[in-house]
Write a structure and sequence with these properties.
Shape: elongated
Radius of gyration: 19 Å
Number of strands: 4
Distance between the termini: 44 Å
Largest sheet: 4 strands, antiparallel
Strand content: 15-25%
CATH class of the domain at 43-120: Alpha Beta
Helix content: 10-25%
Length: 128
């Protein structure tokens, strides 16, 4: 199998999907800077409900209403529900100053269901 040695380019990100400052120069370190070429830079939050919301994932259920409440401030790009754990990836970054602001926005009034806590979990989307 033939191999052509590249004469230009590098392993740095080519696309500036979440900043307007162009490509990152090869001399700049991208350590601790995740590169998401599939879309914008996201914030990740994990919330814990007071009871299992597994039966509340349908139309007009608790989960749908929580997503709608979050989307008053930002866009939910990805979400995951696992029993009492709800994880969200939201855009744009910084739409919620911290986990307490996120919890206040997402914690809607709904019969028997309430979010008891939230954390900003960084670059991770899972219930653990």
């Amino acid at each position: 199998m033939a191999y052509i040695i590249p004469v230009n380019g590098d392993a740095q990100p080519v696309f500036a999907t979440d900043t307007a400052n162009g490509a990152i120069p090869p001399s700049t370190s991208t350590a601790a800077t995740p590169v998401n070429l599939m879309g914008p830079d996201l914030d990740f939050f994990h919330a814990v409900a007071n009871t299992s919301v597994a039966t509340q994932q349908g139309v007009q259920g608790y989960v749908a209403n929580v997503i709608q409440a979050i989307q008053q401030t930002s866009t939910v790009a990805i979400y995951q529900v696992d029993g009492t754990s709800l994880s969200f990836a939201v855009y744009p970054r910084g739409a919620f100053a911290n986990a307490a602001v996120f919890l206040a926005a997402a914690n809607i009034t709904y019969t028997g269901y309430q979010l008891s806590s939230a954390t900003n979990i960084g670059f991770k989307l899972s219930a653990s």
